[in-house]
Design goal:
heterotrimer, A alpha/beta (305), B alpha/beta (417), C alpha/beta (196), B: 417 residues, TIM Barrel, 5-stranded antiparallel β-sheet, 5-stranded parallel β-sheet, 13 helices, 19 strands, C: 196 residues, alpha/beta, Rossmann fold, 4 helices, 8 strands
Chain lengths: 305, 417, 196
């Protein structure tokens, strides 16, 4: 495989392989010197057209731990502000001799367009509302770490599915690995059509919580209120927030996850995020190892053509 | 030969810009140019109700001249230039400028005027002074007239001028921020969509206003099953409505957007299979009167951007006839009615275009090989822009020759100037 | 020979086809015992000696050596394993995928590390292992034990303990298993033949 654009590109077998290889990189990350020479001489560029601290740093650390050279292109410091077209920017960067571009953009589909313009490997680090495949991989890996497997697990994905690339990638990944997914959201925060989505839908979080192994909360953004999708964030929290009281509805061993950054007091209560059953910090830690696995599989494991 | 009167085998003699004779085995006069039409169909030139020539203001995408060359190569002898130029064609002066640019090009250029000043939807444009220059269609295309009261007044005012209002049906508030059809694909692709209802609301409103005012309305680029059904009912009721559909709305669906290729971005957006079927049915049963290209050239820099930042629109003039012949299950006379004499009537130019091929008529003709197959090569198109969604597609039916007022502007598939 | 090595040489996906057996189970047992004695002798006992098997073929051999050593000296020898995939110098030339997790649950600083592998061929795996060890501390010394040295070295690497020196052709394959050592070649899938 040369690119990672959609989690669907990997399929269940591909996800399993990434997770298996990630085990090796977790071990590497725990070494006194957490660095291997696997991608020595390769150059990885992060092309970030949207603010993102954790994903960009996570990819950068992953690349550095593999001994790749890293470069950073973010919009605030770049010629995009001078009106250079996306295509020109990509081709200019590629001309410097890069092996992979890690692309984040607020518009859906940009990584697909970039792939059609350049020859190097393209990795989707989040495109608009569309996909965020490495987030899905690290989430699967985190669940697998706690539960051994996703097969047969019941997972509730709660919140703003409509505007969430995390939800789109995770629903695909979870279901490919055999989990049963229920989406819980007010109708205004669901995609207009769920045709072809292998999920159940509920508008009643209390009813769903008692029957899940994992509750996955999505980030709620304040602007949804101004778009008339919600009367108020308070009403959202009252109906769909994971409050301390709602945690008691969960089965004993159910896990709590969130892609971050969290809005304490909105989709998740302040004290709930810090409960032992919350995997939020483990998700971040695993992010580096999983991205090392992705970079290695895309750049290191295939013979050069 | 195929025209509004039927099909027959004949030679056509053209001189002085007019058809001089139609008949069996005419001997060409000495010195005459003989265009071979063996195995081909001679037909009245095609008429496009919906062409964006981009001049003035966006000459990097198209000019009147390059657009007319594309039109001639596509078999068109007349196009109606849309008024959403920069500045908009909302006055006699602006209309006259485009008409003058169109005097010496490769097809007859007619102009649609704007309904409102600057196409801003606030004040009526001086339709009377534009009508005096021969403008027969008025539209704010690119946008619909959002204000129902203003649209009512425009219809009432237009009825005295004997002109037709053409509506781009889109409820802006409901469609806001939508970059493709809202549905299964937009949900999956994470792109904000615009629902079919954004178009249908305005179709419904304007049918209601046509009933109220008795005015004439032409619906531009119908794209949804609901719109087609409403227009069918309005026609059955006897209202003065006509409608067109664009080739992409009967040949492509929203599934094409999965590539995020911005050449598939268009407004109204590509719809579903069911909508495509409804548009085809509407074309077949006469609900939709005409195929209009909505030829919308865009420079590369406006398309090589993220999908939600790309301008909507696709080229159409050079592929419309072949798409209709390839994709529609209609007899050739049916296809030509949709591309030639019906749109000529709606544009009010039937005295010069789309009429029968007969002695004394203006020699605006095209010669079509309905069986020739070809592959669309974006680089070979005559338009200044390259935004065709059909690159690499194999089509059947090709224009061999086009005659404008007797002058062969296209011979053997090549423009003569 | 490790499954990975087999997968990584053309024809990819081919299967090993044994031609002749060069060591049987008894030979193998005697060689393990002899190497164990040599390790004890060379290091004057087992103080500060640890075994590290190279994934994947060296791991079972390291385990057998460890058992033999504890029988001889009556002490348990710390034993770990290392996957060198990420340290290889041929990444990008052939498919390399980490097969197993490295497991070295002790600091190597000041210890004598005996690297254990089944077959010594070009020496590139051992070179990668030497690099990889750096991340776990600074050993006092590193020694190398292999069951079969088949020649064709591409790097200046020499084993300290050898089960058997076996001249081979470059394209032959040596297969070390618990019950013996075979020489053969790789054939495309579907053309395998079986020994015995």
């Amino acid at each position: 495989m040369k690119h990672l654009l959609s989690i669907a590109d990997l399929g269940a077998d591909g996800i399993e392989e990434v997770m298996r290889v990630s085990d090796s990189f977790v071990e590497v990350s725990e070494r006194a010197i957490p660095r291997v020479p696997a991608l020595r001489g390769k150059t990885v560029v992060s092309l970030f057209y949207e603010e993102s601290t954790r994903t960009r740093l996570s990819f950068e650390m992953a690349a550095k731990r593999l001994s790749a050279d890293t470069m950073n292109f973010s919009v605030s410091t770049s010629s995009a502000k001078k009106g250079e077209s996306l295509r020109d920017t990509c081709q200019t960067i590629e001309a410097m001799g890069v092996d992979a571009m890690v692309v984040r953009h607020s518009s859906a589909g940009v990584p697909w367009q970039v792939r059609s313009w350049v020859d190097c490997t393209v990795i989707n680090a989040g495109d608009g509302w569309h996909e965020h495949p490495t987030q899905a991989l690290l989430d699967c890996y985190t669940i697998r770490g706690s539960r051994g497997s996703l097969d047969g697990l019941r997972i509730a994905v709660v919140g703003d599915v409509k505007h969430s690339r995390v939800a789109r990638s995770n629903v695909l990944a979870f279901t490919m690995l055999g989990a049963e997914v229920t989406i819980v959201a007010p109708p205004t925060l669901l995609p207009p059509s769920l045709d072809g989505w292998p999920v159940a839908v509920s508008h009643d979080l209390d009813n769903v919580l008692a029957k899940v192994d994992v509750v996955y909360l999505l980030r709620m953004q304040a602007e949804r209120q101004s778009e008339a999708l919600l009367p108020s964030l308070r009403e959202y929290t009252a109906r769909y927030g994971l409050t301390r009281k709602r945690v008691d509805l969960l089965p004993e061993d159910a896990l709590i996850m969130h892609p971050g950054p969290i809005n304490r007091g909105v989709e998740i209560a302040a004290d709930v995020a810090d409960l032992p059953r919350s995997l939020i910090t483990r998700q971040v830690a695993n992010g580096v190892a999983v991205r090392m696995a992705v970079l290695f599989l895309l750049l290191g494991s295939e013979p050069r053509a | 030969m195929v025209d509004i009167t039927g099909e027959r085998m004949a030679d056509v003699l053209v001189a002085g810009g007019l058809v001089q004779a139609v008949g069996q085995s005419i001997d060409p006069p000495a010195g005459a140019t003989v265009l071979d039409a063996a195995g081909c169909i001679v037909a009245p030139g095609l008429v496009d109700l919906h062409t964006h020539l981009r001049q003035p203001g966006r000459e990097e995408a198209e000019t009147v001249e390059t657009g007319s060359r594309a039109a001639a190569l596509g078999g068109y002898t007349a196009v109606v230039a849309m008024p959403n130029t920069e500045p908009a064609l909302d006055s006699a002066a602006a209309v006259r400028e485009v008409l003058e640019l169109g005097m010496s090009v490769l097809c007859d250029v007619r102009v649609a005027g704007a309904i409102t000043v600057g196409r801003l939807g606030k004040d009526l444009a001086p339709m009377g002074e534009m009508a005096d220059l021969g403008v027969r269609l008025f539209t704010d295309d690119g946008d619909g007239v959002q204000d129902a009261r203003l649209m009512r007044r425009a219809m009432e005012y237009a009825s005295a001028l004997g002109v037709t209002l053409a509506q781009h049906c889109e409820d802006k508030v409901l469609a806001a921020g939508g970059h493709m059809h809202e549905g299964e694909w937009s949900s999956r692709l994470g792109l904000p969509g615009q629902p079919a209802e954004a178009e249908e609301l305005m179709v419904a409103r304007d049918i209601t206003l046509a009933r109220l005012t008795g005015g004439r309305v032409h619906f531009l680029h119908l794209s949804t099953a609901g719109s087609v059904a409403m227009v069918r009912a309005a026609k059955a009721e006897g209202l003065a409505v006509t409608a067109e559909a664009a080739p992409h709305h009967f040949t492509l669906t929203d599934a094409a957007v999965a590539s995020y290729e911005t050449n598939f971005k268009v407004n109204p957006p590509l719809r579903t299979d069911a909508d495509v079927a409804a548009v085809k049915a509407g074309l077949a049963d006469g609900t939709i009167d005409a195929i209009a290209t909505d030829h919308a050239p865009h420079a590369a820099e406006d398309k090589e951007v993220p999908f939600d930042q790309a301008r909507p629109g696709m080229l159409g003039l050079e592929t419309a006839l072949a798409l209709a012949l390839t994709e529609l299950d209609l007899p050739i006379a049916g296809v030509l009615a949709l591309l030639s004499w019906n749109p000529a009537r709606i544009a009010g130019i039937e005295s010069a275009h789309g009429g029968p091929v007969a002695e004394g008529r203006p020699a605006n003709l095209c010669v079509i090989d309905p069986a020739a197959t070809w592959v669309v090569d974006a680089g070979a198109l005559a338009s200044r822009a390259r935004n065709t969604p059909y690159a690499g597609r194999k089509l059947t039916g090709r224009v061999h020759h086009t005659l404008l007022r007797g002058e062969p502007v296209v011979i053997d598939g090549a423009a003569t100037r | 020979m490790a499954e990975r090595e087999r997968a990584a040489t053309p024809p990819y996906g081919g299967v090993f086809s044994a031609r002749s057996q060069v060591m049987d189970a008894e030979d193998l047992r005697r060689a393990v015992t002899r190497i164990a004695h040599e390790i004890v002798e060379r290091n004057h006992g087992l103080d500060g000696v640890v075994l590290i098997g190279l994934q994947t073929g060296g791991v079972p051999l390291a385990r057998r050596l460890s058992e033999a050593l504890s029988q001889i000296e009556g002490v348990a020898v710390p034993t770990g394993s290392i996957d060198v995939a990420l340290f290889r110098d041929d990444i990008g030339i052939r498919p390399v995928i980490p097969e197993a997790v490295t497991d070295i649950p002790f600091d190597l600083t000041g210890l004598t590390v005996v690297l254990v592998d089944d077959v010594l061929f070009t020496g590139r795996t051992v070179r990668a292992a030497l690099d990889a060890l750096n991340a776990y501390g600074r050993p006092r010394a590193v020694q190398l034990a292999v069951m079969v040295d088949r020649g064709h070295r591409e790097l200046p690497i020499r084993p300290d303990f050898v089960g058997k020196n076996l001249p081979t052709r470059h394209d032959e394959i040596v297969d070390v298993r618990d019950d013996g050592v075979d020489v053969g070649e790789k054939r495309p899938a579907g053309q395998e033949t079986h020994r015995r």
